[in-house]
Write a structure and sequence with these properties.
Strand content: 5-15%
Strand order of the largest sheet: 2-1-3
Shape: globular
Protein name: GDSL esterase/lipase
Family: Belongs to the 'GDSL' lipolytic enzyme family.
Number of domains: 1
Helix content: 40-55%
Radius of gyration: 18 Å
Structural class: mainly alpha
Keywords: Glycoprotein, Signal
GO molecular function, one term: hydrolase activity, acting on ester bonds
Distance between the termini: 41 Å
């Protein structure tokens, strides 16, 4: 049986982080700031759900049953790569941006299940089906970060994120899924690849 590439990547990342952390190289990280989609969302979509997305399956078992014993808003029955990274660094799971009253001293998670690289209005302008139909794109998450930045820095100046690990999760896959959900062919989606890649590149630079 072949081991899935994702599992191999997870083992590699965690092994590297644990080795670096035990050697003191990563001990300076005191928080994690995460962006992404379902591969990194630890519950933001669930916070958003009602009444926008009633009947969200993520709120029910079997999601979460393997590790947590109850649904957590993760799109899995266990933990995400982000959870293992936090554990390897000795950090708690980062608070959700959309959770009210969160303390962001240990970081913040902006990731949302289904988040595309391109904006919702642009995708809908192409008559594409976007699921979920909410403003959670890479650009939106970066705007949230900019809004939250003053409270995160709290007057620390340019070095306020010197001890923060930034994790940029997967983007782009949901854009292509929108084309498939709208009965578009691969050839019809292909011309938009440069725009999707450019959106991700600009997001990384920001």
């Amino acid at each position: 049986m072949r081991t899935p590439h994702g599992a191999l990547l997870l083992l590699f990342i965690v092994a590297c982080l644990r080795g670096a952390y035990s050697g003191g190289g990563w001990s300076r990280f005191t928080s994690i700031i995460s962006f992404g989609d379902s591969y990194a969302d630890t519950g933001n979509l669930v916070m958003w759900a009602d009444p926008v997305l009633p009947g969200l399956l993520l709120k029910n078992l079997p999601y979460g049953e393997t590790f947590f014993g109850h649904p957590t808003g993760r799109a899995t029955d266990g933990r995400l790569v982000l959870d293992f990274i936090a554990e390897a660094l000795g950090l708690p799971s980062m608070p959700l941006y959309l959770a009210r009253g969160s303390n962001f001293s240990a970081g913040v998670n902006f990731a949302v299940v289904g988040a595309p690289a391109l904006n919702l209005t642009y995708l809908q302008g192409l008559n594409l089906t976007v699921n979920p139909p909410i403003n959670s794109s890479l650009h939106d998450q970066l705007v949230w970060f900019q809004k939250l930045k003053p409270s995160l820095c709290n007057g620390q100046g340019t070095d306020c994120f010197g001890s923060s690990l930034f994790v940029m999760g997967e983007f782009g896959g949901n854009d292509y899924i929108s084309f498939l959900l709208s009965n578009r062919t691969v050839e019809q989606a292909r011309p938009y690849v440069p725009q999707i890649v450019d959106s991700i590149s600009r997001g990384l630079e920001d």
